[in-house]
Structure formats: structure tokens, C-alpha cells
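Field log, afternoon session.

UNIT: design team B
ACTIVITY: writing a sequence onto a fixed backbone
BACKBONE:
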């Protein structure tokens, strides 16, 4: 093969390489633009390039939320006025900090902050349970507001922390659509923070109906009124995370 032929071949191979690089660049740019457009919709901000943006966004969000987390814990610590700290076991501390650092709802992050603060307080005598972490992860700010209302109303009744709060009273005092309140109440029962008093009433009703049938006597039945009470773990959760 002559030197000229070798030059031609080298030029052809170089051209192929240039085309390959150009096509690769075009594909990369197209993917970046596509990813950037998708992430712009996800995060609600204008994003020109999607390469690495998820990690950058998460890191920035975590940094921002961690700053607020530290400030709120320091604030609660000053309010409780303790200077000696109780170390938190890693199995508790890590999920608390990770979840609190990613929580963008301030009201829910405040709940994490109170749990962390009380976990650090050597004088706090409510047992910190892993269940509290799972409960917070499953709550909305409305759920927390309704739970606190049930707690406060029970205390103000003078009949004990487990006294019943009627659903009509909850709807009247929590200014959101009624269906949202019912969904929150269902969720609070799901995470076992409250229980429906009618369940016991229905069981009692069935019991008396069976006795009346057995004795061949009349029974008019109970007049049920939907109401809710705190469970034991619900009360402990409020002590550790809300008030």
C-alpha cells in the first residue's frame, strides 16, 4: 500500500471517528435536554442540563433542610433548658436525621426536631420507640394537627386523656374539607394513634342483642355517635414528638 493510500485510509478512519463522536455528543446533548426538561417539571424550576442535577438538587435540599433542622433542635433545646446530652443509638439517630433532612414541610420537620430533642434530653422519661419514626413518616401535617386537637380536647375535658372526642367537634374546629378530615382520622387509626369508640359500642350492642334474643326480650339498640380517643402509643407519640 502506497503512502498516499495509507493517508486516504487514515483520513477515512478519522472521519468515521469524528462522525461517531458527533453522533455521541448529539445523543448526550439530546438526553441532557430531555432529562433537564423532565426534572424541570419534577422540581418546578428551570433546569438546562440534567447531568448530575438529581444529586445536586438532593444535596442542596438536604443542606438547606439540615440547617433548619439544627437551628430548630438548638431552639427546642434552649426552651427545655438542658445542657447535658443523652447519646442517641445509631439505629434511631440515622433514620431521624435522614428523614428530617429531606422533609420539606416545616410542620412535619418540627415533629422530627422535637423527637430528636427529646431523645437527646436525659430528663425526658417517655421511652423513645422506633415506632415513632414510622408514625411520622406516615403522617401529613393535617394528621398531626388533628391528633394534637384530640389530645388537647381530651385534656380540657377533665375526664382523662382517653376521653372521646366527637367527629362533629373535630370538623367544626379544623378548617379543612370534611372528607380530608375523615381520611386523616382513618390514617391515624391505621398508625394506631387513635381508635374509634364505636367499635366498642358496636361490640356491646351485639352482645346485648344476643342476650335479648336468648331471653326473648326486646332491645332497642344503641344510638351511636362517632367519636375518637387516643391510644396509649398515640399519647406517648404526642409527648415525644408534638408537644
Amino acid at each position: 500500500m502506497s503512502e498516499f493510500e495509507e493517508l486516504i485510509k487514515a483520513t477515512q478512519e478519522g472521519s468515521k471517528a469524528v462522525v461517531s463522536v458527533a453522533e455521541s455528543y448529539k445523543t448526550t446533548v439530546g438526553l441532557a435536554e430531555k432529562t433537564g426538561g423532565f426534572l424541570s417539571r419534577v422540581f418546578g424550576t428551570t433546569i438546562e442540563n440534567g447531568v448530575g442535577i438529581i444529586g445536586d438538587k438532593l444535596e442542596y435540599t438536604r443542606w438547606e433542610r439540615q440547617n433548619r433542622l439544627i437551628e430548630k433542635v438548638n431552639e427546642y433545646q434552649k426552651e427545655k433548658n438542658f445542657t447535658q446530652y443523652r447519646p442517641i443509638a445509631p439505629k434511631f439517630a440515622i433514620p431521624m436525621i435522614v428523614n428530617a433532612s429531606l422533609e420539606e414541610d416545616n410542620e412535619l420537620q418540627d415533629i422530627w426536631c422535637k423527637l430528636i430533642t427529646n431523645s437527646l434530653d436525659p430528663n425526658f422519661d417517655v421511652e423513645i420507640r422506633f415506632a415513632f419514626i414510622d408514625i411520622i413518616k406516615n403522617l401529613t401535617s393535617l394528621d398531626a394537627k388533628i391528633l394534637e386537637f384530640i389530645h388537647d380536647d381530651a385534656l380540657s375535658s377533665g375526664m382523662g386523656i382517653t376521653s372521646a372526642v366527637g367527629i362533629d367537634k373535630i370538623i367544626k374546629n379544623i378548617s379543612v374539607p370534611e372528607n380530608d378530615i375523615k381520611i386523616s382520622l382513618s390514617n391515624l387509626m391505621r398508625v394506631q394513634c387513635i381508635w374509634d369508640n364505636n367499635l366498642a359500642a358496636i361490640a356491646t350492642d351485639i352482645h346485648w342483642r344476643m342476650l335479648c334474643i336468648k331471653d326473648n326480650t326486646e332491645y332497642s339498640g344503641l344510638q351511636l355517635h362517632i367519636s375518637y380517643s387516643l391510644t396509649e402509643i398515640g399519647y406517648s407519640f404526642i409527648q415525644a414528638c408534638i408537644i
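LOG NOTE: Residues 2-12, 14-29 have pLDDT under 50 and may be disordered.
NEXT ACTIVITY: expression trials, pending approval
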